[in-house]
């Protein structure tokens, strides 16, 4: 599975951006897909994810402001970000949990796309 993230940029506080993550390869093995972010000097943290059953989960600090959605025909996941704050500034990474068959039967692995930078100015 390959993940290609796009859509980052510079936006003023209160503004909006939409990130896209296009998946390719064995996308049928993706169990969940979503976004993490990493701000300068901080650890990478979960932002939002959506499962194959369209169950969405959000980190508390983005609930009500960010919406994750998916277009199965395009194998693309979107993160609509509204009411952006300077503290949302970070590199955003697309992430997927992918089932991989192994000799023992199979296991779930983490796949990462390249990051896309979101900068929110005050």
Descriptors:
122 residues, mainly beta, 6-stranded mixed sheet, 4-stranded antiparallel sheet, 0% helix, 61% strand, elongated
Oligomer: single chain
> What's the story with the biggest beta sheet?
6 strands, mixed
Structure class: mainly beta
Unreliable spans are: none
Total strand segments: 10
Enumerate how many helices there are, as a single number: 0
| Rg estimate, integer Å | 14 Å
User: DSSP strand (E) fraction?
Assistant: over 45%
N-to-C series of helices and strands: EEEEEEEEEE
Share in helix: under 10%
How much is the average pLDDT?
95
Our measurement of the CA-to-CA distance between the termini, rounded to an integer number of angstroms, reads 37 Å
Characterize the overall form.
elongated
**Order of strands across the widest beta sheet?**
2-10-9-4-5-6
Give the helix/strand layout:
Elements: E1 2-6, E2 9-12, E3 17-24, E4 30-38, E5 45-51, E6 56-58, E7 66-71, E8 76-81, E9 90-100, E10 107-121
Parallel strand pairs: 2-10
Antiparallel strand pairs: 1-3, 3-8, 4-5, 4-9, 5-6, 7-8, 9-10
General description of the model:
The structure is a single chain. With 122 residues, the chain is mostly beta strands. It contains no helices and 10 strands. The chain has a 6-stranded mixed β-sheet, with no helix packed on it. The chain has a 4-stranded antiparallel β-sheet with strand order 1-3-8-7, with no helix packed on it.
């Amino acid at each position: 599975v390959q993940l290609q993230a796009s859509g980052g940029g510079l936006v003023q506080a209160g503004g909006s951006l939409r990130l896209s993550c296009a998946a390719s390869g064995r996308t049928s093995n993706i169990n969940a897909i979503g976004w993490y972010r990493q701000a300068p000097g901080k650890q990478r943290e979960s932002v939002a994810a959506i499962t194959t059953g369209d169950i969405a989960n959000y980190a508390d600090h983005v609930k009500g402001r960010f919406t994750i959605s998916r277009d199965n025909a395009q194998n693309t996941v979107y993160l609509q970000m509204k009411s952006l704050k300077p503290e949302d500034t970070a590199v955003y990474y697309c992430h997927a949990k992918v089932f991989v068959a192994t000799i023992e039967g199979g296991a779930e692995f983490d796949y990462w796309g390249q990051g896309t930078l979101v900068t929110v100015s005050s």
